[in-house]
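The passage that follows is intended for readers who have already worked through the single-chain material. We present the inputs for a multi-component assembly, then the predicted structure in tokenized form, and finally a short commentary. You are encouraged to pause after the input and sketch how you expect the pieces to fit together before reading on.
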Amino acid sequence: MTTASVSAEVISVGTELLLGEILNTNAQFLAQELARLGIPHYYQTTVGDNVLRLQKAVAIACERSRLLIFTGGLGPTPDDLTTETLADFFEVPLIERSDVLEDIAQKFARRGRQMSPSNRKQALIPQGAEVLPNPVGTAPGIIWQPRPGLTILTFPGVPSEMQAMWQQTAVPFLESQGWGQEIIYSRTLRFWGIGESVLAEKVAAFLKLENPTVAPYAGKGEVRLRVSAKATSEAEALNLIHPVAQQLRDLAGIDYYGEDEDTLAVAVGTLLKAKQQTLAVAESCTGGGLGQLLTAVSGSSAYFWGGVISYDNHVKINLLGVNADDLTQQGAVSDIVAQQMAIGVRERLGTTWSLSITGVAGPDGGTATKPVGLVYIGLAGPGAGQVESFRYEFGDRGREMVRWLSTCNALDRLRRRLLSRS
Amino acid sequence: MTTASVSAEVISVGTELLLGEILNTNAQFLAQELARLGIPHYYQTTVGDNVLRLQKAVAIACERSRLLIFTGGLGPTPDDLTTETLADFFEVPLIERSDVLEDIAQKFARRGRQMSPSNRKQALIPQGAEVLPNPVGTAPGIIWQPRPGLTILTFPGVPSEMQAMWQQTAVPFLESQGWGQEIIYSRTLRFWGIGESVLAEKVAAFLKLENPTVAPYAGKGEVRLRVSAKATSEAEALNLIHPVAQQLRDLAGIDYYGEDEDTLAVAVGTLLKAKQQTLAVAESCTGGGLGQLLTAVSGSSAYFWGGVISYDNHVKINLLGVNADDLTQQGAVSDIVAQQMAIGVRERLGTTWSLSITGVAGPDGGTATKPVGLVYIGLAGPGAGQVESFRYEFGDRGREMVRWLSTCNALDRLRRRLLSRS
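Having made your guess, compare it with the prediction:
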């Protein structure tokens, strides 16, 4: 059998998905697993609990894919149609498997519950299919070759059951088939302070590479480059990825801040720890979000000492020493107040550095001169009078987005300052 | 035009989805929205950044659906293929729209960034299509009838952009078409401080209803009941939902805190505003997360004044007046320190109430007597010496979960206190 032609399709069955009542995490799990196993995967389909539409989806999938992976529709209720629809489609009778029935009965007994007649349905398996055991719940799946060159796996929709069945039975089965071509292994490089298109042009030559491939993505205020290698092992993939990632980092320079799950808070923390320096924050419109992001990093107590949430102007005056006249004359959202907040919190906490944020997060509170999205970031550091402030106009992009961009830009300012002095 | 025949298909474009690198939250959002608008939605397809496969997916979708909603593939890079693939498929040229180009240029200018030549691509629109404006990012979508009885909408993959465009332009457009049939309208009731099975037993009779249906869900530390009605209008659906929701709220009592997008911070804010009272926070292990949640509510400045992030013990002593001997003898994670933090921040900020949080978020820092997941919450209020503290053992459930549960339980303690005094 040529291995090149086996590609997988994930078919998620359930009206609840089409109503948006649940998020399709199964499709993501299976996608990750197929990539890990090196099995190509080009399509995903979601269809409701409807015999006709499910049959049509199966007909299309058979034409374009040779491994069909179903999730959902294996339960005991009349809504659960996957197994009988597949048997109908391939014109094969359903057989009640006594071993499966006994297993279901035992599981009910062990939980001290009565097995209901509707659970009998879960023991019906298309003739010729093998049982894909369910170690967690009652509904088993199937492994079935209804015709040469076509393989079907079915799983319940409950993620914990599906994942246990996948790991215990499906993975060994798939590995034994030799369908795995190359593993696709990826590393994500993260950038702040550069637009997607500018970065893409800077690294244009790399976007044409074939192995590894390099692809840009826009995130929440940031840009990412995904470097994906096809290889027969993780080590080989990393050998392909590493030199390219290094060249990309060199090209991007200071705009590169971390990889994979790194945040700007991780990047700042690593730099502070290396320098044995400390940080405090003074937050107005972000209300604690900067501190929260910093302390999401385990071990952040080594460099982050804390700060003041000065949401109300009295707190700015009383706890941070912001000048009341400046507040009145320049307003809370101003360069001078951002600077005084940074100076105040740094002095009071005795840290090396401090960051402050004051702005109009919206949706209310904007004026002609201080529109929603206007944010000032203050940065104070060692050295007499060393304080700076930075003005941003993020626009009316939603309260949470303005707050998020404020937090990230504050961290990025400190990151650049720390790098410029190393 | 008969309205019965219009059904929607969501087509998610992006290799990153097929590699499992991102979760397809867009598909869920659109599914919810289509249900809300009463537009039938029978299929979802996910396909990679590949012209041929995308064309095949379009061909299939045209056969079975009359409203195709695309997300992804509108960016400036060569990977972004949706617009040109659609134009190719329907054999229509792409036209550079000068108004779109100008809008993109202005957005770059406003952010002080250089527009790159590759962004020009985002101004290309199939001949005959209308622009679906993007108020957030640079890439607009399209609204297009490439042939009679077939409508195409395209959106970028970035959720914040897609959602803004959906709300501002797509929803009014779809509503004006009269495609909505039977609406499925849901309301979610939210509960804190009661387990899923206990609540399910309390409301057992309601779980058998047929219209509206009532279904329990477990959330992050909370339980929800979704009440869903089928009707021909939102008003009719709400008439079905309201009496049932009221009975459920009555049955649950104080454990009910809000509905739909309400958070515990919204519930607390509503109570404080009604009483014209104010709140301050002192946060250790949550590092600002409580303040952030409180200030995520627009208008929270009416009752939330701010607080102190006392991550380091020196900050607890210097800014909150926590007794250094108590800190040494009892440790930072103790009843007495939680109480002193609450008293300290309330006195310094002059608010009616204060909340404090101190705990071991993990994964490191746990000991035999103070394990990971041990958290104390302090609550101080008006009246001489009125301070309480509450001990929680959340267990080693991951740093973010321990911090989340700490934040929510702190808010819930204040919510119950405010309700008990009304």
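Commentary: The domain at 264-420 of chain B is CATH 3.90.950.20 (Maf protein). Chain B has a mean pLDDT of 93. How closely did your sketch match?
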